[in-house]
Amino acid sequence: MTSKRLGKRTVAFASPPSVISFSNIGGKMESRGPLADYFDELDQDSFFGEKTWEKGESAMQKRVLNRALQKAGMAPSDLDYIFAGDLLNQCIGSSFGLREFGVPFLGLYGACSTMGESLAMAAMAIDGGFATLAAAMTSSHFCTAERQYRMPVPYGNQRTPTAQWTATASGCCILGAQGDGPYITHATCGKIVDLGISDVNNMGAAMAPAAHDTLLAFFQDTNTSPSDFDLVVTGDLGALGHEILCDLMAQDGVKMGKNYKDCGLMLYDLKQQDMHAGGSGCGCSASVLNGYLLRGMREKRWKRILFAPTGALLSPTSSFQGESIPGISHAICISNTK
Amino acid sequence: MTSKRLGKRTVAFASPPSVISFSNIGGKMESRGPLADYFDELDQDSFFGEKTWEKGESAMQKRVLNRALQKAGMAPSDLDYIFAGDLLNQCIGSSFGLREFGVPFLGLYGACSTMGESLAMAAMAIDGGFATLAAAMTSSHFCTAERQYRMPVPYGNQRTPTAQWTATASGCCILGAQGDGPYITHATCGKIVDLGISDVNNMGAAMAPAAHDTLLAFFQDTNTSPSDFDLVVTGDLGALGHEILCDLMAQDGVKMGKNYKDCGLMLYDLKQQDMHAGGSGCGCSASVLNGYLLRGMREKRWKRILFAPTGALLSPTSSFQGESIPGISHAICISNTK
């Protein structure tokens, strides 16, 4: 019964699920970044019309799912499952944002790797014969993340050079058993990797070893290398994590090359927008995938990409208790051909 | 590709995954309850040998997975995936408890429904051909939950009559493609249901409508009724939620009957242990399933049970912001025959 396993850790889908529809939404900073043209919606109001930032984050998930459904001419009742999660305590961005849709809901927690985890789970549900249509989605919000992980925004917390900027954004991808692609052809799910980094202002360094572990497994299992892909894209390693990942892969004889990008380095103009090490948050990779990347694939700019968002599985409590930061990364291969 | 769908929302596994091994652990209160004999391990130290309660909760997950593996004569490397989550912010009970195992990890957030969600996901991964062996697990801890959701334990918070007691417990179930049962034959995943209950000390009332929605869908899809099962067991509705669920089902003409039990009413002696409305927490249903229930099935005391844990998808933040409490429930049919 494990005919769909390839190598040690990779799943090769027998009937690769197709991207049916995708949508993204961003806030003020995202509207000033280089990918602004690739957003379905950009809202200058950080509350997204709600009274609190948390409710605003939920509103983003609601809007982005509604738009993805609308673009596909679908009703919520067409979906068999929604796979979603976010960074907020108890994932309230998802549970409150999605409660009105009446769709069976599978809550995930993968920190900033959630877009990858949700795609892997949705693709398994479809290829396994348990669903015809499923949505994979996540969100993050700068102001909800700042006050939960660091300090409330009005405090004016000073940021270190290695700090990243949590994207105020959400992305949703609807996968289906039938469709014209792009297709989810492979998924390599991540192990928890913890090399002992404990600086909460240097997430890139904490998460890079997880991306290294997962990407190495993917390349070995599929007998490929980065040059076989038009793009290899990590989620939010940022400037430092990008460099560390290249170094770690080089130690194993794998050259990441110039096609290796990071969503955290794509979403903002780091210097002009004073973004320090780059963007981060579940919404960073989710909005880049469900806009710039999938649109580029539909427009045949790229044939095959490897999307590997990374997450840091810490909490303020674990850090206060002296713990290091465990990382995780899930790699998803997306191709225009089955 | 949806041949495994039954009715509107239920999955009928083509090759029902088998329970390979299961294990549970509990704390002091659990050791004084009526199910004490059905625990693999009971620790009188609420820290489980660690310096903080959060680390203690992680230690429970670590121990319970180790024991489940040991009972099956397996190594961590035999597992293709671990599906796990817990109540702690950012699910640190799972990420820190499981980081050393080196097994691909899929983090879930389903609040107290997590044992059901993890079983559904693990069974789909196996029946879908993506895994041979997968662990499904979760935990909760009275002291970590109290200080996160309510007040730190030393404060001596007064509890209302409808309040429930978060179990200090963890449970793990290893499922496999081959095995002698019991088997996971069906799963009905839950929708988010919110009827507007906002009393955080009455979770049973908030979650009962979700159990009602999922169980009704399951019975309709499978053309069964509660009397077709030796046991129908909800997770932690407690005394009030148990009664509400019976009422809601009766309104739809479904008599829950005397075989309907709730793990929150089984784990403790409510009166003698001053438990108010009963037990709760992810670990409540997880430890009852992975001890009393699965052992009873192996001993042929029951042939077929329906396990439907329920979760409340709130956070302290959502309640402070005036939100009601969304509930969710996932139903898993477990049978001694395929």
UniProtKB/TrEMBL annotation, chains A, B:
One Pfam family cited in the UniProt record for this chain: SpoVAD
Coiled coil regions in record: none
InterPro entries: SpoVAD, SpoVAD_sf, Thiolase-like
Gene3D superfamilies: Stage V sporulation protein AD (3.40.47.40)
SUPFAM superfamilies on file: Thiolase-like (SSF53901)
One GO MF term attached to the UniProt entry: acyltransferase activity
NCBIfam families: PRK08304.1, spore_V_AD
Record-given protein name: Stage V sporulation protein AD
Species of the source: Oscillibacter hominis
Gene name, Swiss-Prot/TrEMBL: spoVAD
